Amino acid sequence: MMATVATSLDLKVHPGRMWEALKDAANFMPKAAPFFWKNWEVLEGSPSTVGSLILLTFNPAARGDLSIKVRVTEFDEEELYVTYESLLDSDPLYKQLRVTMSIDPGQDEESCVVTWSVFYEPVGNQGPPSKEARHRLLREMEAYLRTNDVYMNFCRTLSRG
């Protein structure tokens, strides 16, 4: 049976800048959150193309010596969200795992709300990534963008009504 958890945090990063970083997830994620990711290797396509295949290698301290293959199943440039789904038999802890990261405007124009939703069917009693790990990942992404002069090309207006 599929279960769902979601974490939303207000981050002090312009939503367009966060989106630019997520579009370049293969480069961004291992740099922003090395405690969680060792590497994202694009096997087919690109991180911003539906159907692309990516090999995610976790930091051994986070999930042991584990790599899983995911496919980009949704990528919406207008609504600012991306969904990754693990391939069957790729993850020993989950029969199915689908992660969506979405970005909404924050309280001011230099902030955003990032929501990390996890839909999963565990093997045995395995739960989702811990709430602490999800919060830490989002805070590490924020800290990386606030301390590094990257993904500054976000000259677009976010207008959703």
UniProtKB/TrEMBL annotation:
Family statement: Belongs to the BetVI family.
Protein name listed in UniProt: Bet v I/Major latex protein domain-containing protein
Residue intervals of the Bet v I/Major latex protein domain: 1-148
InterPro entries: Bet_v_I/MLP, Plant_def-hormone_signal, START-like_dom_sf
Organism: Riccia sorocarpa
Gene3D superfamilies for this protein: 3.30.530.20
